[in-house]
Amino acid sequence: MNCKKLICGSGPNSLLADQMLKSWVLLSLALCMMTACASKSEKLNEEKSADEVALTHFNVVFAPDLSNRINSKMHPRPLHDPQIVSRVLNNIYPKILNHQRSDNQLDKFSVSLINKKLLNEYNINKSELNIDFSRFKNQRERIDYIKGRSEASLETDVQKFEEEFNRLNQIAAERTFGADVWSYLHAGVDNLIVQEEKDPIIFNGTTYRNQFRNVLILLTDGYIEAGIYNKQGCPEDNACYYLSGDRVSRFRQAFKKSGAKDMKAFFDDNNYGIVPVDNPHLAELEVLVLEMYDRSLSQSGSATVHPTDTEILKLFWSDWLEKSGVKRYELRSMMTTEEEVEEIVLDFMGIR
Fold first, then answer.
1. How far apart, in whole angstroms, are the C-alpha atoms of residue 243 and residue 204?
2. Paired sense of beta strands 206-219 and 198-203, if any
3. Domain annotation covers residue 320
4. Is residue 36 part of a domain?
5. pLDDT 10s digits, 20-67
6. How far is CA 166 from CA 45, 159, 172, in A?
7. Reported pTM
8. What is the pairing mode between strands 52-64 and 206-219?
9. What contacts 113, CB < 8 A, 6 or more positions away?
């Protein structure tokens, strides 16, 4: 606002005019100061926002389905779960830790069992299935750990993680249990699995906001076991809590018998699906499903029926995860090399 000089005349009313002039000048000065203060306040807010840094950390959770899918004689696969886990762990440094960051990493890598009772059943040392960078007080401690200059080291902890996970896999192969993935996503995914934004840290005048990308690597074949079947397991006729091999076969038969050309349209029109999960934590969860195993293929990998099991599994899973409100997901079939595992996982995490 421009403050202009006013000129008043003289005469018998000059005293009144002077008083009015003084009042007007004071008001004008006040308005000028308010405008200047507002501009200064806006500038301060801009400077404040410029000193705020948002850091995104990875919270990677491996959730293995320890059912008969890990029996290599029943379901032979080129790769096994320990190889998949090992390949990811060996990319922690430098690829994952240095992704768009140079310090203050709070990344975490852990294992969550779909059937949590197996921890005691298999006598698993859960502390060795956990690598947590948020435990360090400062970046120097973190670097010493990464570089192997402290009593504990990343290399040693990765080795312990691999050995304990391999032991878990070997025990489970001998004593398999069912894997109720539906119940796991419904109740097993909690605030311990999904990390929320931590309190901001102020250092040298800069505010650091720590956010997390919660990545669940779900090691399962796509066939969902459950403790309830038949009518009780399918409260809405074609919508069930499970997705067994028999249910996949019956869907295929019904689709082919209908004469329909579009499998997705047939799926929707007849209300097929998996009962959606009601869990608000899924809104912050990114799910990578490895590896869907197609039981309809021959030993040489050729299709024996159409549509194949994989096509049907992906149809059911996509519909289920979307209706359950999962933030993001990707469904992958069997992989053949560890290099392929690395590429798929890092690509899912946005690391290239």
1. 54
2. antiparallel
3. yes
4. no
5. 545 544 545 444 444 444 444 444 344 444 588 888 999 999 999 988
6. 53, 11, 10
7. 0.83
8. parallel
9. 63, 64, 66, 119, 124
Identify the domain containing residue 104 by its residue range: 54-348
Helices (H), ranges, 51-112: 81-89
Task: Give the Å distances, CA to CA, from 121 to 167, 175, 231, 304.
Answer: 13, 10, 31, 39
In a domain, 14, yes or no: no
3-class secondary-structure state, position 203: strand
> Phi then psi for 179, rounded to 5 degrees?
-125, 105
Q: How far is CA 145 from CA 190, 281, 295, in A?
A: 29, 32, 44
Burial 256-294 (b: 16+ CB within 10 A, else e): eeeeeeebeebbeeeebbbbbbebebbebbbbbbbbbbb
Neighbouring CB atoms inside 10 A of 16's CB total: 11
CA 57 to chain centre: 11
Tokens of 40: 């200064």
Q: Tell me if the bond preceding 76 is cis, omega within 30° of 0.
A: no
Quick one: 109 exposed, middle or buried, by C-beta within 10 A (0-12, 13-18, 19+)? buried
Residues 156-200: pLDDT tens digits?
Answer: 999 999 999 999 999 988 887 778 899 999 999 999 899 988 778
Contact 282/191 with Cβ under 8 angstroms?
A: no
Extended beta strands in 94-224, E state: 108-111, 130-132, 198-203, 206-219
Using CA atoms, how far apart are residues 128 and 142, in angstroms rounded to an integer? 18
Residue 25 lies in a domain: no
* Cα dihedral 166, 167, 173, 179 sign: negative
Three-state secondary-structure class, residue 292: strand
Specify the DSSP element, H or E, that contains 58: strand 52-64
User: What is the rounded distance in angstroms from the CA atom of residue 274 to the CA atom of residue 320?
Assistant: 6
What stretches of the chain show up as alpha helix (H) in DSSP? 14-50, 81-89, 118-121, 139-147, 154-174, 181-183, 230-233, 245-258, 263-269, 309-323, 338-348
Burial class (CB within 10 angstroms; exposed 0-12, middle 13-18, buried 19+) of 61: buried
Structural domain count of the chain:
1
